[in-house]
TrEMBL record:
<dbReference type="Pfam" id="PF00150">
    <property type="entry name" value="Cellulase"/>
</dbReference>
<keyword id="KW-0378">Hydrolase</keyword>
<keyword id="KW-0732">Signal</keyword>
<dbReference type="Pfam" id="PF00553">
    <property type="entry name" value="CBM_2"/>
</dbReference>
<keyword id="KW-0136">Cellulose degradation</keyword>
<protein>
    <recommendedName>
        <fullName>Endoglucanase</fullName>
        <ecNumber>3.2.1.4</ecNumber>
    </recommendedName>
</protein>
<feature type="region of interest" description="Disordered">
    <location>
        <begin position="136"/>
        <end position="166"/>
    </location>
</feature>
<keyword id="KW-0326">Glycosidase</keyword>
<dbReference type="InterPro" id="IPR001547">
    <property type="entry name" value="Glyco_hydro_5"/>
</dbReference>
<dbReference type="InterPro" id="IPR001919">
    <property type="entry name" value="CBD2"/>
</dbReference>
<dbReference type="InterPro" id="IPR008965">
    <property type="entry name" value="CBM2/CBM3_carb-bd_dom_sf"/>
</dbReference>
<feature type="domain" description="CBM2">
    <location>
        <begin position="32"/>
        <end position="140"/>
    </location>
</feature>
<dbReference type="GO" id="GO:0030245">
    <property type="term" value="P:cellulose catabolic process"/>
</dbReference>
<keyword id="KW-0624">Polysaccharide degradation</keyword>
<dbReference type="GO" id="GO:0008810">
    <property type="term" value="F:cellulase activity"/>
</dbReference>
<keyword id="KW-0119">Carbohydrate metabolism</keyword>
<feature type="compositionally biased region" description="Acidic residues">
    <location>
        <begin position="140"/>
        <end position="155"/>
    </location>
</feature>
Length: 461
């Protein structure tokens, strides 16, 4: 089942269609030099983050097409565009034009083919005056139909065969380990997004990218790090960023991958009411899914566990449990999620609770593992939701410390501690997994950066 909460709109050219955020517009084009009559161009806005958006473009051919050029005018204010799988792309004012890349130029009779995608700066709006191979879209009668909005992911729909969720099902905490629905101890491994509002492109929200990582990197879990406090993050736009998190949850359900919903904050205890509202709503609507893991606080700073963090976790966990009685909740620990031994001395009451441990191998070494071993011996279940083979700043100096990182990876394997590595984005930091030019949709074998080869080598083989 395609998990998609977008409202899909189908219109014949000539219809005045209002902009509705994330939507799809199908345009009926007249026959051109090599475009058959009845050819359709579908403009599908799959992500909108206010200052920009992402869209996919599909063509349906009643008769064969061998090579295409598509053009249209945007109704929204678009100031820049970056498309993939095309040649000759151009944006002049509101007018956009692009041609096939050769391998995607042929479309069989009756076939619908997604031919390219793009990200753009500005507002999405709709597209008008579309043409295929120079043939302006035909006249329409203004008819517009609206299909029912798709429902949320259905827990009775089985995850895709062979996927991590199909193999392991509903997770639980057994002792101080994670277990699958058969009660077997498991270790999940995967990667984390960048702070969503600081991504160079919306890699985290792209279903094709997630499926590519599942099939090529063998990730089992993906962490969506929703920034909370910085300018432009959740506190500035709660509805917008919660919607982006929902996109990742829905994609993960469709891909059969576990997803960690991370309230990515350093002062979340100062925003407890916002955290309660955020998790209450999402737990109500997605807590029925077996692949969702809640992370209530990314990296608390140097604040009291018993006086500040534990009461915060108790309040937020209670809100989650009112809607979702069984999915795992991961609790942040003091000193940027280093002091798991402090949390172990006074754990939060409840079931299926785990505790966050973070490390960066150029900064954190055996002394930090000793603290973690103390917590494990006290019965605490740990989840390393973020780590890097770099300094604790994420590798601003570009260094990697692979020997110490291997000690950490071996220790996590020995203790069956699940992990997600930081971070899926492009940039110079040594924890950025991708290099410049990495396409949005996957296919990154030639675009690995920093500690990425080490991370990928330690994912399931």
């Amino acid at each position: 089942m395609r998990v998609d909460r977008r409202r899909r709109r189908t219109a014949i050219i000539g219809a005045a269609v209002a902009a509705l955020g994330a939507s799809a517009l199908t345009i009926v084009a007249a026959q051109g030099a090599s475009a058959a009559e009845g050819c359709e161009v579908e403009y599908d806005v799959v992500g909108d983050w206010g200052s920009g958006f992402q869209a996919n473009v599909s063509i349906t051919a009643d008769e064969p097409i061998d090579g295409w050029t598509v053009e249209w005018d945007f109704t929204g204010a678009v100031s820049g565009i970056s498309a993939w799988n095309v040649t000759g792309q151009s944006l002049n004012g509101s007018h956009f034009e692009a041609s096939d890349a050769g391998w995607n130029g042929s479309i069989a009779s009756g076939q619908t083919k997604e031919v390219f995608g793009f990200t753009a700066s500005g507002t999405a709006g709709d597209i008008v005056n579309a043409a295929v191979n120079g043939a302006v879209c035909g006249e329409g009668d203004g008819e517009q139909t609206t299909e029912p909005e798709p429902t949320d992911p259905d827990p009775t729909d089985p995850p895709p065969a062979g996927t991590p969720v199909e193999r392991h099902g509903q997770l639980s905490v057994c002792g101080n380990n994670m277990c699958n629905e058969d009660g077997q101890e498991i270790q999940l491994r995967g990667v984390s997004s960048m702070w969503l509002h600081w991504q160079t492109q919306p890699y985290a929200q792209n279903l094709s990218a997630l499926e590519w990582m599942r099939d090529n990197w063998n990730i089992e879990v993906f962490r969506v790090a929703m920034g909370v406090e910085p300018e432009g993050a959740y506190l500035d736009d709660p509805d917008g960023w919660k919607a982006e998190v929902e996109t990742v949850i829905q994609n993960a359900a469709e891909a059969g991958v576990y997803v960690i919903v991370d309230f990515h904050a350093h002062q979340a205890h100062q925003h407890q009411s916002e955290a309660v509202a955020f998790f209450s709503d999402l737990a109500d609507r997605y807590g029925h899914l077996p692949n969702v893991i809640w992370e209530t606080y990314n990296e608390p700073e140097q604040v009291s566990w018993t006086g500040t963090l534990k009461p915060y976790h108790e309040a937020v966990t209670a809100a989650i449990r009112a809607q979702d009685p069984d999915n795992i909740v991961v609790l942040g620990t003091p000193t940027w999620s280093q002091d798991v031994d402090v949390a172990a001395a006074s754990p939060v009451s409840g079931t299926n609770l785990m505790y966050t441990l973070h490390f960066y191998s150029c900064t954190h070494a055996q002394w930090n593992r000793d603290k973690a071993n103390t917590a494990i011996n006290a019965g605490l279940a740990l989840f390393v939701t973020e780590w890097g083979a770099s300094a604790a700043d994420g590798g601003l100096d570009g260094r990697v410390c692979l020997d110490e990182a291997q000690r950490w990876v071996d220790w996590m394997a020995a203790n069956r501690i699940s992990w997600t590595a930081w971070k899926l984005d492009v940039g110079t930091d040594s924890t950025n997994l991708l290099s410049d030019g990495a396409p949005l949709t996957g296919g990154w074998d030639g675009h690995l950066h920093g500690h990425a080869p080490f991370v990928i080598a330690n994912l399931p083989q």
